Recover the amino acids of this structure.
């Protein structure tokens, strides 16, 4: 019997060709598998084992999200000074210890600071990993590499969710604590695998970066781009919170549609993210990609709003069409935002710049659920039109904001820049 081989789609295989991406893909797969385990069982862990109420879990996660917003910039500065790889390794090790602490908490007040600490370290590690990609890869490989890693992320989380079903079936404190231990172990394994990535020197002048260690904070055009990218990320709140509640309470579609829609989103990202990331090789193209992204997401909002009150099959088709359109927008928006986040950054301070960029991402994750609950879920079609208008306005703003950002620095497209702000 011949040996079975698994062949990646060509676009994914090409993206995985760089040795750094191959190493980071192993790290990402292990890490996100653990994330999928805990994401699937976390709510039950905190309610059934720790003894928290559902509202307490929601409050703790919201406060943790706020802590995550604060993480990117200071930890990005650490990466600029001491190097991205050792910073990520250290953060993964710290997160392993913190996550393991979930097995020892027994009340809201003991769980809350731990949740906040975990989310602070996790969002900071994500920001520093972006800096690691920027420092390890040539400019023309960064977006492609990040797109491939995003595909791997979806695979890892899906595998973790499947494995977590064993704990859900057992439904015992021991099973949920085993998941926590397994998640902590994945952080340790990921840290060890990361040692395969070549060591990188801190940015030149890493201690002060020509006196502008936190210059990204005063780079107003870059901060504006970051805010716009964060607004597009609010789509995650629509898909993860808005869609399930809308389908369940406001349409005649079967509840199984929720799982089908999530599966559709995951499969599309795995198969198409790399392909749809092509063409983001300069800021102008990246901005137009973000423009298309926001427009598609706005269309998806309208389709969701129209599904209310319709027969089950019609509503099902509209919801699936909305998810497909939004997922294409999600992928285009991610690629365009990544390209702008990398290309407009000062190469000497990628840690802080990616920290600022990740702050926008974290803020979008926190604001997304609030935005969808206060628009579409509260006011029906009118609310969905308002939310779609927000995404559309964000999309349109990308083009002039990018022109402004490009005009404030003498070089872009990943080449070393001597500008860290509009005054440069």
């Amino acid at each position: 019997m011949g040996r079975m081989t698994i062949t990646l789609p060509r676009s994914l295989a090409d993206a995985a060709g760089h040795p750094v991406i191959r190493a980071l893909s192993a790290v990402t797969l292990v890490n996100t598998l653990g994330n999928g385990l805990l994401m699937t069982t976390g709510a039950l862990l905190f309610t059934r084992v720790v003894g928290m109420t559902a509202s307490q879990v929601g409050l703790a996660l919201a406060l943790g999200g706020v802590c995550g917003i604060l993480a990117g910039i200071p930890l990005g500065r650490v990466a600029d000074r001491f190097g991205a790889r050792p910073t990520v390794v250290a953060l993964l090790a710290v997160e392993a210890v913190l996550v393991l602490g979930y097995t020892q908490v027994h009340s809201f007040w003991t769980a809350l600071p731990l949740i906040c600490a975990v989310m602070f370290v996790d969002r900071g590690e994500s920001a520093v990993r972006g800096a690691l990609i920027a420092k390890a890869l040539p400019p023309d490989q960064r977006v492609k590499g990040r797109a491939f890693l995003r595909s791997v992320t979806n695979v890892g989380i899906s595998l973790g969710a499947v494995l977590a079903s064993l704990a859900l079936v057992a439904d015992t404190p021991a099973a949920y604590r085993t998941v926590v231990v397994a998640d902590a172990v994945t952080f340790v394994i990921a840290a060890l695998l990361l040692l395969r990535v070549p060591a990188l020197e801190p940015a030149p002048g890493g201690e002060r970066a020509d006196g502008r260690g936190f210059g990204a904070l005063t780079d107003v055009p870059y901060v504006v781009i970051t805010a716009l990218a964060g607004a597009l990320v609010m789509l995650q709140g629509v898909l993860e919170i808005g869609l399930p509640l809308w389908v369940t309470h406001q349409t005649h579609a079967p509840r199984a549609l929720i799982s089908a829609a999530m599966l559709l989103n995951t499969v599309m990202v795995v198969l198409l993210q790399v392909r749809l990331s092509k063409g983001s090789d300069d800021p102008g193209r990246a901005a137009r990609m973000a423009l298309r992204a926001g427009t598609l997401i706005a269309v998806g909002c309208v389709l969701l709003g129209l599904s209310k009150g319709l027969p089950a099959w019609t509503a099902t088709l509209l919801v699936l069409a909305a998810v497909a359109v939004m997922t294409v927008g999600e992928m285009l928006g991610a690629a365009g935002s990544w390209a702008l986040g990398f290309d407009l950054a000062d190469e000497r301070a990628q840690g802080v710049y990616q920290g600022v960029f990740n702050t926008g991402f974290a803020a979008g994750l926190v604001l997304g659920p609030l935005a969808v609950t206060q628009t579409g879920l509260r006011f029906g079609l009118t609310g969905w039109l308002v939310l779609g208008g927000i995404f559309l306005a964000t999309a349109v703003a990308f083009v002039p904001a990018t022109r402004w950002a490009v005009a404030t620095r003498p070089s872009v497209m990943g080449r070393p820049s001597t500008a860290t702000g509009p005054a440069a």
The mean pLDDT is 86. The chain has two domains: 10-194, 215-407. The radius of gyration is 21 Å. The chain is about 75% helix and 0% strand.
